[in-house]
């Protein structure tokens, strides 16, 4: 069972995040960059499947040089090797373009299962697994809260607001995971030391056979035109309780469509 | 903890990030409840152990992390900044393995991997109710009986007393005051070994401290570390390393107090502006920051001497003295910054202050540290020593 986990380095959602005012792309150089939180659940799931079924876990990332930090974290958790696609031409790519790059990289790998987080905390476009499924011609099982593999079949519980769906497909397939699926392990110091010796292959667009002109901000299918900071918090609403406090509260919540 | 650090390797930087992760996600959510209810967080030590944080300064060949003290102490500091009791516990555990690692025979060192693997927790027994600063006055005896020793006596102030899986124990094998003491490694489940009810302490209430009773505890003779009579030098050598551990813990505690005080002073307003912008308070915070950085610098300086294989006992004592006195001052001032709120148990700074106090007392009182320092001044060689360490690219963590 060979598993490829898609990993993305993103600005820490707990710190102040910015867009670069020159081209409205995510300011990565100045940010406190971390592994996308949701990806840690995908890595954990891959390691769990590997522990019961054997095989190898490969981490695949597209990103600038600094993305090696995210790769190292994944390797120290226990992944076996990594592929780092890095090329200046990728800067500013939209999801559609990026999916072409990732698909090209996946085609150079052997995989039975591709796992990824259901969303990244920076772009939150959340379409990557669907795009890859289309490009690779493999089934896409999205939003998993539970995953089991038996022979060449993968079964998934897809989390929904009201419950869950049972999904099943043949392998190879791509599955995106929510944070309800497991509890990611911490790396251990032994894992950190072992990660130093694990192979990390760096690939350019040329290595993947992707035309640099087909990616990047200039030909992106979507781009950020303008942005503004979050408006300052308004004054809260005060409800005076004149015997009907609960009613007023419920009325407010209902008006805001919160209940 | 927003501290700018220089560490020698990428793995040290990753290790510190792992430590901060663990501190934030595993320690921080538990500290308040455990300290308030005086509960020893045994499971937290297992979590740290599984992550490999309980054997960092020991050689990889015996299951340790092979990290220099310079790195190990910064890990300890990050832990203590969130939970001082756990920082002390990690330091004590490390110290409980020190004798075996430094004087144990290769045959005895077969026990080390298990002790360093993280599932087990150690303690050490040196002080007695009447013999703290003067350990050579100890009375606990170990009497040879064939292939065994029989230990009888009591050991006071044992951190992890009753919780530990093994105890490093100093006991008298002859009447010679200083050369009549030997070192033993006693399993926690040895018949005749028991713990008194835990002490009710002013602080570090999440760390169990108890008197251990030895009532005819029989252990195989092979569990003696070093030669008969070598125990006190082993204990004192361990204390030098242990003092660095406490200096790092005190530095972390003070950093935690500073962070809380600064956060509060930026938010709290009086006379129309945040109190950090009032010079009186701003300068108080500045002095606190200067104290914390001073503690860290001294601690890491002593650590680097140790890592280079140079004598460092005097510097370890200075680090312990400076860092713990600074921690007392910084935590007291943190209470001042928070004013009336700081004096309540709804905020953690009064706890920091209670925790700092014992650091001036244990691992050699600060009066004993001054004794060590002044004796080194009286007897030490004069003249400068400069050692060139192998230059390494510094990494920021």
What does this structure look like?
The complex is a heterodimer of chains A (259) and B (397). Chain A is an alpha/beta fold and 259 residues long. Chain A has helices at 37-53, 68-77, 95-107, 128-136, 189-195, 205-208, 245-255; strands at 3-6, 9-11, 33-35, 57-62, 81-85, 113-117, 140-150, 153-159, 164-170, 173-177, 200-203. Chain A has one domain: Rossmann fold, CATH 3.40.50. Chain A contains seven helices and eleven strands. Chain A has a nine-stranded mixed β-sheet with strand order 9-8-7-10-6-1-4-5-11, with helices on both faces. A two-stranded antiparallel sheet of chain A has the order 2-3. Chain A is globular and about 70 Å long. Chain B has three domains: 5-116, Butyryl-Coa Dehydrogenase, subunit A, domain 1; 122-229, Butyryl-CoA Dehydrogenase, subunit A, domain 2, CATH 2.40.110; 233-379, Butyryl-CoA Dehydrogenase, subunit A, domain 3. Chain B has helices at residues 10-36, 42-50, 69-82, 84-96, 98-103, 112-116, 231-267, 279-307, 313-342, 349-359, 366-379, and strands at residues 6-7, 122-125, 141-145, 148-159, 166-172, 181-187, 193-195, 209-220, 224-225, 269-270, 273-274, 395-396. In chain B, the strands form four sheets. A four-stranded mixed β-sheet of chain B has the order 2-5-6-9. Chain B has a four-stranded antiparallel β-sheet with strand order 3-4-8-7, with no helix packed on it. In chain B, helix 3 (69-82) packs across helix 7 and helix 9 runs antiparallel to helix 10. The A-B interface holds A 72-73, 76, 186-190, 192-193, 195-196 and B 10-11, 14-15, 18, 21-22, 47, 50-53, 56, 65.
């Amino acid at each position: 069972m060979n598993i490829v986990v898609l990993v993305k380095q993103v600005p820490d959602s707990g710190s102040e995040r910015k867009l670069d005012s020159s081209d409205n792309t995510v300011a990565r150089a100045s940010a406190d960059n971390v592994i996308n939180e949701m990806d840690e659940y995908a890595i954990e799931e891959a390691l769990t499947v590997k522990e019961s079924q054997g095989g190898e876990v490969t981490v695949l990332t597209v990103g600038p040089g600094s993305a090696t930090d995210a790769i190292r974290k994944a390797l120290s958790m226990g992944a076996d090797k990594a592929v780092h696609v890095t090329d200046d031409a990728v800067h500013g790519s939209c999801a559609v373009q990026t999916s072409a790059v990732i698909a090209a990289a996946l085609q150079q790998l052997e995989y039975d299962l591709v796992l990824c987080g259901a969303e990244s905390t920076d772009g939150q476009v959340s379409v990557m697994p669907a795009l890859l499924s289309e490009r690779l011609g493999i089934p896409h099982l999205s939003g998993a809260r539970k995953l089991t593999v038996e022979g060449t079949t993968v079964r998934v519980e897809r989390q929904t607001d009201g419950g869950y769906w049972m999904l099943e497909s043949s392998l190879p397939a791509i599955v995106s995971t929510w944070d309800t699926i497991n509890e990611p392990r911490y790396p251990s110091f032994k894992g950190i030391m072992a990660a130093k010796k694990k192979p990390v292959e760096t690939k350019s667009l040329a290595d993947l056979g992707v035309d640099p002109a087909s990616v990047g901000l200039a030909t992106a299918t979507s781009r950020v035109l303008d942005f503004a900071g979050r408006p300052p918090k308004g004054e809260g609403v005060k409800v005076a309780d004149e015997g009907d406090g609960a009613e007023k509260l419920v009325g407010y919540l209902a008006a805001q469509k919160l209940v | 903890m927003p501290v700018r650090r220089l560490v020698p390797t990428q793995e040290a930087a990753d290790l510190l990030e792992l430590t901060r992760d663990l501190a934030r996600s595993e320690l921080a959510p538990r500290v308040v409840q455990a300290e308030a209810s005086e509960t020893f967080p045994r499971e937290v030590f297992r979590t740290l152990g599984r992550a490999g944080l309980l054997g960092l300064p020991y050689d990889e060949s015996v299951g340790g992390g092979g990290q220099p003290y310079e790195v190990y102490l910064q890990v300890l500091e990050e832990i203590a900044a969130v939970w001082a009791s756990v920082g002390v516990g990690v330091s004590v555990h490390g110290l409980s393995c020190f004798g075996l690692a430094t004087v144990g025979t290769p045959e005895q060192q077969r026990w080390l991997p298990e002790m360093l693997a993280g599932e087990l927790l150690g303690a050490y027994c040196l002080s007695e109710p009447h013999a703290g600063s003067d350990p050579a006055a100890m009375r606990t005896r170990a009497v040879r009986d064939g292939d065994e020793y029989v230990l009888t006596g009591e050991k006071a102030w044992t951190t992890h007393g009753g919780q530990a899986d093994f105890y490093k124990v100093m006991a008298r094998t002859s009447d010679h005051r200083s050369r009549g003491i030997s070192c033993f490694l006693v399993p926690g489940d040895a018949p005749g070994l028991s713990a008194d009810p835990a002490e009710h302490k002013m602080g570090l209430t999440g760390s169990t401290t108890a008197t251990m009773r030895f009532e005819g505890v029989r252990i195989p003779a092979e569990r003696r570390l070093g030669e008969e009579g070598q125990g006190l030098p082993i204990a004192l050598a361990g204390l030098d390393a242990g003092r660095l551990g406490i200096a790092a813990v005190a530095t972390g505690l003070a950093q935690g107090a500073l962070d809380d005080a600064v956060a509060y002073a930026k938010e709290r307003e009086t006379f129309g502006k945040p109190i950090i912008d009032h010079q009186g308070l701003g300068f108080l915070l500045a002095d606190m920051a200067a104290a914390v950085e001073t503690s860290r610098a001294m601690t890491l300086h002593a650590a680097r001497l140790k890592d280079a294989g140079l004598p460092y006992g005097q510097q370890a004592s200075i680090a312990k003295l400076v860092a713990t006195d600074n921690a007392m001052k910084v935590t007291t001032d943190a209470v001042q910054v928070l004013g009336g709120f700081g004096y309540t148990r709804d905020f953690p700074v009064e706890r920091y202050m209670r925790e700092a106090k014992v650091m001036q007392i244990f691992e050699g009182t600060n009066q004993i540290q001054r004794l060590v320092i002044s004796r080194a001044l009286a007897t030490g060689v004069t003249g400068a020593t400069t050692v060139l360490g192998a230059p390494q690219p510094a990494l920021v963590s």
